[in-house]
Amino acid sequence: MAVHYRLRCKECGKTWDNSPRSFCEDCFSPVEVSYDYDALKKTVRREDLASREFNMWRYSELLPLSEDFAPTGAVGGTPLVASRKLASRWGLQELYFKNDAVCFPSLSFKDRVVATALAAARRFGFETVGCSSTGNLANAVAAQAAQQGFDACVFIPADLEPAKVLNTAVYGARIVRINGNYDQVNRLCSQIADRFHWGLVNVNLRPYYSEGSKTHGYEIAEQLGWRLPDNVVVPMAGGSLIGKIAKAFRELVTLGWVEAKPVKFFGAQATGCSPISDGVKRNLQRFEPQKPNTIARSLAIGNPADGPYAIKLIRESGGWAEDVSDPEIVAAIKLLAESEGIFTETAGGVTTGVTQKLIAQNRIKAHETTVVCITGNGLKTTDAIAAEYPATEAIAPRLDAFEAYLETQIGTTAPATVSAKA
Ligand SMILES: *Cc1c(COP(=O)(O)O)cnc(C)c1O
Ligand SMILES: [Zn+2]
After folding, report:
1. Does residue 402 lie within any of the structural domains?
2. Does 136 contact ligand 1 (Cβ within 6 A)?
């Protein structure tokens, strides 16, 4: 497979050779991977995908991989769940949840970005990889580094959820806990990438890393039967994923794999860290950085690197951004689990809660096709909802004890009225 991409400055347009860099040396704006779509049209056709396994590598030609790249394992390929209960409760005809709570191997969409970042790390000869992380990214780096034989060193705010820290430690990664918030951790990582020859996936490998997010978008379009939705609701931390889903959809149109169609992009944040949704709602030219204070720690980035691009995309697409409070996040996690059987982490509570708000505001309409992105697994943030489910009293292993229990719980002892549905 020949290489059909280079780095390109998002502002001045200057192109740069493929290398571990995240900004343009001329104007200091971010660079991104840009492709030669005419060449790609000749390299791969949509029909070629039919015989490939359903995981993110089926879109390899559209990712920044080297010529000799060989996947070491399946990543992505998650279900698009058609909603029945919530769709009818909310009065929508077509509602889907893209469920990256079960993304392989580490149960969040960050597995996708790490997969392309480590491909770049290998190509550029790094032996040690790492990241600054709000939790999920560290899990994904640690898991895939272990599998592929990189040393891993990850940097996290000291107050992360215990499950996310454990989920990194178990893979043998070195964890550096920092007394500071994510934005301070990230600044430190920029200095470390300059000083050491390390591949920090969301710092000096950021252009390659963020391209992995596109596969979340490709899968949505393919699972809808090669068609674009009317609305997508996307959680925002650094504001990268939402832009990459848009890029994925644009590329599919450019390649002629889906019909062009206006898609509205809706951004979701937690009120306790909502610089992007605040910027959209107040119609700001530039967002105002915030100090995060929310249970949605995976989204707690107060100074989002791609915030300005996310705001622009949301506005130009005719979408909107909203945010939900911590109690609303908890309620939405429970609602999604009870109605769709999907247990999401706090970020998915944010997108679900925001979707509900957008419907109430009539910004998402009944006849439209709406996809809600669920990006991480509920087992990683059990502390956020544990207080909702106090342990029940244990009973003796006897029928009379169970009958007494039923009487105190639901006020009945008559088995006939206790149907399987009760
Ligand atoms: C990182 C993350 C996001 C958002 O990512 P950005 O691309 O930085 O906006 C969303 N959900 C979860 C669970 C994440 O870990
Ligand atoms: Zn530039």
Report:
1. no
2. yes
Residue 422: per-residue pLDDT: 42
For residues 203 and 113, is the Cβ–Cβ distance under 8 A?
no
Atom of ligand 1 nearest to the CA of 240: 7
Q: From ligand 1's centre to the CA of 355, what distance in Å?
A: 17
CA 24 to ligand 2 centroid distance, Å: 5
Q: Which of 314, 327, 202 is nearest to 265 (CA)?
A: 314
Q: Is the pLDDT of residue 302 over 80?
A: yes
Average pLDDT along the chain: 95
Report the chain's terminal Cα–Cα distance, integer Å.
58
Q: Ligand 2 centroid vs 208 CA: distance in angstroms? A: 17
Same domain, 205 and 231: no
Omega of the bond leading into 105 within 30 degrees of 0 (cis): yes
Q: How many domains does one find in the chain? A: 2
Question: Per-residue confidence at 413, pLDDT binned at 50, 70, 90?
Answer: low
Domain span at residue 94?
80-106+213-384
The region, left, alpha or beta by phi > 0 then psi within -120 to 50, assigned to residue 135 is: left
CA distances 122 to 68, 71, 114, 125, 152, Å, are 11, 12, 12, 5, 13
- On whether both 86 and 50 belong to a single domain, the answer is no
- DSSP E strands, 101-230: 128-132, 151-157, 174-178, 199-200
The mean per-residue pLDDT over the stretch 166-192 comes to 94
Hey, whose CA ends up nearest to atom 11 of ligand 1?
A: 375
Q: Domain holding 63: CATH number?
A: 3.40.50.1100
Statement to judge: residues 308 and 221 lie in one domain: yes
As a whole number of angstroms, the distance between CA 362 and CA 118 comes to 42
- pLDDT tops 60 at residue 417: no
- The DSSP H or E segment spanning 372 is strand 369-374
Are 135 and 239 in the same domain? no
